[in-house]
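your task:
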Amino acid sequence: MYHIALVTVPDMEVAHELVKTVLKNRLAACANILSGLESHYWWEGELCCEKEILLILKTTTENLPKLEAHVLKVHPYDTPEFVSWVINFGSKKYLDWVSSNTAIGE
């Protein structure tokens, strides 16, 4: 099975560093970086609005727990976003590519 994981980060520097380590450790096969995101949320009793970057990470079910652990370990936020969706359908060739480009990371 395959997953898409979403992670928000504060800036492009953090985005590039996180993506680099995720891909280097083969915790995901692909990462998309989307800038221009505006997040609105509650934090410690205050309503907040911040500019953020969204990472879209494609991985396998097998790698998902290690991907989450890595993100939580290196992320600068106290409580980083890490959510995932199961990919219910995808082209066989693409999903085979995801499988061949991911391996259990360190």
About this structure: The chain has a mean pLDDT of 95. Residues 2-100 form a domain with the Alpha-Beta Plaits fold (CATH 3.30.70.120).
